[in-house]
């Protein structure tokens, strides 16, 4: 033992080892599942300058290229819906939109990118809405309120229903 | 052959420097560049095997109790999961000063309890590949890639630690770095797993612990300004009168 090896030094060295377990605090947690980012949409009707939310019955929604896989199937009493978007980087998606006896096509133009949800869970696609519109008898207009489609339960678009359809589907 | 000669000369130089150390004058304090290596990264082999860090430090007792410090290091990250692979590598540098808070009782004591400040900067890149995203409704993502993205980060660190001279010129010590991020370039796809020298990439502040072994090259001595004298409690013997 060196002659200047003080007891105080041994205390310092012991203290060293107290700190090492702190490294474990940086460990990554476990994954409880990755959510898919879905577009939130609300149904509204406009009478002049007055805007009111409205409810649709017998509501059916599916991707235009995917008629056998329904997102909503004759659902009743709906004021808001959530639906997924394709993962392609840039796309124009068409959804068949039925309410009561009417049919429409909802067009969504968007960009997507992969984002890391967490190092435990991995990646998911986030979307950015560029344009949305209807083409048929049910949808009057569509307004984008929050263009970023992420993992929160937000209303991304307002779908304004033609007043006549809004009354007839009730 | 040239390499052997080079190492022999280096060894002779170090021996000569070490002998300077033993020839230290009374009341003088030895100093020289202290080169350190951080052993705390070895704990990553157990706690975070996806990451490896190599970190070196250089300090010098420029004035009594004042040690300018330079630190630099490299980091490699490789994460392989079922649904993605992630790679990152880069380096960091920190510059600052440590102030020894212990009061000397002898000139030849070099142990330190210190506080310090650093400015840190890191340049690194990261990428991900083989990304899989399952999708119940539309076609999922298979084997996608996010190409290399070069990033940098700047931060300040408040440091506290101890250094102990275990043997002449050979030191061990630990230090805790409290890091506060000043700026970091953003990647829209993913936050870095770990910013070299700083800590978690998605955090504004972090704590890093170093556990250093260091060797001081004893290149010189200086006369310290102040020494706190220990109170002498021994009783001086009475002078014995000379017998005629």
Mean pLDDT of chain A: 82
Low-confidence stretches of chain A: 1-5, 23-27
From the N-terminal CA to the C-terminal CA of chain A, the straight-line distance is 92 Å
Please list the strands of the largest sheet of chain B in the order they lie side by side.
2-3-4-5-6-7-8-11
* Share of helix of chain B, binned: 10-25%
How would you characterize the largest beta sheet of chain A?
6 strands, antiparallel
**Beta strand % of chain A:** over 45%
Rg of chain A, please? Answer: 27 Å
DSSP strand content of chain B: over 45%
Strand order of the largest sheet of chain A: 4-3-6-7-8-10
Bulk shape of chain B: elongated
Based on DSSP secondary structure assignment, what is the total number of beta strands of chain A?
11
Pair with the most extensive interface? A-B, 36 and 46 residues
Subunit organisation of the chains: heterodimer
Explain this structure to me?
The complex is a heterodimer of chains A (170) and B (244). Chain A is mainly β and 170 residues long. Helices cover 11% and strands 49% of the residues of chain A. In chain A, the strands form two sheets. A six-stranded antiparallel β-sheet of chain A has the order 4-3-6-7-8-10, with no helix packed on it. In chain A, strands 1, 2, 5, 9 and 11 form a five-stranded mixed β-sheet that branches. In chain A, strand 7 (102-118) and strand 8 form a beta hairpin. Chain B has 244 residues and is mostly beta strands. Chain B has helices at residues 2-22, 44-47; strands spanning 29-31, 34-38, 51-59, 66-80, 85-100, 112-133, 141-167, 170-184, 194-195, 199-200, 205-216, 220-222. The radius of gyration of chain B is 25 Å and the shape is elongated. The model of chain B has no long low-confidence stretch (mean pLDDT 85). The chains are: A mainly beta (170), B mainly beta (244). At the A-B interface, helix 1, strand 7 and strand 8 of A face strand 6, strand 7, strand 8, strand 10 and strand 11 of B.
